[in-house]
């Protein structure tokens, strides 16, 4: 039985952050050491990002000064440091809207599936918490059936959409009538802060806000509809790097640890991490070992955790430069939106006319652990 990812949709908040302007703001904060100022310039300048999106309209340079700014004071140019409670209040307000927007877009993209057909909801986020949570909000605001089963995958980091899709696939394999709505929403900019710490500066240069959603089901797509068949999943943790990527709750928001060693660790271990994904298909394993996997798998949906990560994956797996274009363009246009990002890359691949029916796709995302989550897919339609 085939299980498909259908109705893949994305959404971002309306406020755009221009990378060069954000660099000026963060680089001009009082208390930054000369070394930190140089790191800001390097991290922002070499990020591969041109723009990002945020739910915080007060972060923009334009517009009148606010009477009570909480995140950025336009008059003084100072970045402020609200407590975790304030940040979570903003998360509950804005994440709710994006969950519903992305979930509704996924349903609208598949007219043959109605809200009443959805049997399960899986929500994903590592940038905020509230209860009743987003799984409840989706069921209520989208008019899902009263008995819809709900799950939330929280605080797993940038790879979390992959286990969400795997869980959805397993639910459909267990019940051929299942229709699973998967929605990821990440509001990373709620946790940006000024700092002299290099890891914090790197994180500040990368993260943006966004949402991705899709329907996972064994129901066959309509004529002309484009979808992904979910073929296989794999999980691996690298032998080193447990402390290289971490995400902790502090008194003033969530604190990201993102070591500059992460790209080289991924490059060093990516071949071993992806081999279990391909083990059921001997020709693909052989191509991986021969350095020819880029020719055997046409498309690569790599989580663009940063420009250097993409460089290491491309070099180690000997992929063609064109195969990293969807990931690099996603990074350029949206930044790193944590778990939602790989859904943006997959959406870009699916919308590309060059992606033909039957083409294979390898998707990978990276997160704390250091964990590599991967999926093998096939383009349908």
Task: Describe this structure as you would to a colleague.
With 381 residues, the protein is of the alpha+beta class. The protein contains 12 helices and 15 strands. The strands form 4 sheets. It has a 9-stranded mixed sheet, with helices on both faces. Strands 2-3 form a two-stranded antiparallel sheet. Strands 4-5 form a two-stranded antiparallel sheet. A hairpin with a 3-residue loop joins strand 14 (360-367) and strand 15 (371-380). Helix 11 packs across helix 12. The two termini are 17 Å apart. The mean pLDDT is 95.
Summarize the structure.
This protein is an alpha+beta fold and 381 residues long. Helix content is 36%, strand content 25%. It starts with a strand and ends with a strand.
Largest sheet: 9 strands, mixed
Judging from the principal axes of the Cα atoms, what is the shape? globular
Read across the widest sheet, the strand sequence of neighbours is 7-6-8-9-1-10-15-14-13
Content of β-strand:
15-25%
Tell me the number of helical segments per DSSP (H or I, 4 or more residues long). Answer: 12
The tally of strands reads 15
Radius of gyration from the CA trace? Answer: 20 Å
Distance between the termini: 17 Å
Order of helices and strands: EEHHEEEHEHEHEHEEEEHHHEHHHEE
Structural class comes to alpha+beta
What's the mean pLDDT score? 95
Low-confidence stretches: none
Assembly context of the chains: single chain
* Share of helical residues: 25-40%
């Amino acid at each position: 039985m085939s299980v498909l990812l259908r109705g893949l949709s994305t959404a971002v908040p309306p406020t755009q952050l221009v990378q060069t302007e954000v660099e000026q703001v963060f680089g001009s904060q009082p208390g930054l050491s000369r070394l930190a100022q140089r790191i800001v310039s390097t991290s922002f300048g070499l990020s591969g990002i041109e723009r990002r999106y945020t739910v915080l309209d007060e972060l923009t340079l334009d517009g009148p000064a606010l009477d009570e700014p909480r995140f950025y004071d336009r008059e003084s140019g100072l970045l402020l440091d609200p407590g975790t409670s304030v940040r979570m209040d903003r998360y509950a307000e804005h994440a709710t809207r994006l969950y519903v927007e992305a979930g509704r877009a996924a349903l609208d993209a598949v007219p043959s599936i109605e809200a009443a057909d959805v049997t399960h909801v899986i929500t994903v986020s590592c940038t905020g918490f509230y209860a009743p949570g987003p799984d409840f909000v989706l069921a209520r605001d989208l008019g899902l059936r009263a008995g819809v089963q709900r799950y939330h995958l929280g605080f797993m980091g940038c790879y979390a959409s992959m286990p969400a899709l795997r869980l959805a696939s397993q639910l459909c394999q267990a019940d051929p009538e299942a229709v699973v709505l998967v929605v990821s929403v990440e509001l990373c900019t709620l946790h940006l802060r000024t700092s002299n710490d290099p890891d914090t500066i790197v994180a500040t240069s990368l993260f943006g806000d966004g949402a991705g959603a899709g329907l996972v089901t064994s129901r066959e797509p309509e004529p002309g509809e484009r979808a992904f068949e979910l073929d296989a999943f794999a999980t691996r943790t690298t032998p080193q790097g447990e402390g290289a990527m971490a995400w902790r709750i502090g008194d003033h928001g969530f604190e990201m640890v993102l070591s500059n060693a992460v790209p080289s660790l991924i490059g060093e271990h990516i071949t071993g991490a992806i081999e279990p994904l391909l083990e059921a298909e001997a020709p693909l394993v052989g191509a991986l070992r021969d350095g020819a996997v880029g020719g055997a798998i046409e498309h690569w949906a790599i989580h663009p955790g940063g420009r250097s990560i993409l460089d290491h994956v491309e070099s180690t797996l000997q992929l063609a430069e064109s195969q990293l274009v969807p990931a690099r363009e996603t990074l350029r246009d949206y930044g790193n939106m944590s778990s939602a990002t790989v859904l943006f890359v997959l959406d870009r691949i699916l919308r590309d006319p060059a992606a033909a029916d039957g083409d294979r796709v390898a998707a990978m995302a990276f997160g704390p652990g250091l964990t590599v989550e991967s999926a093998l897919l096939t383009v349908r339609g």
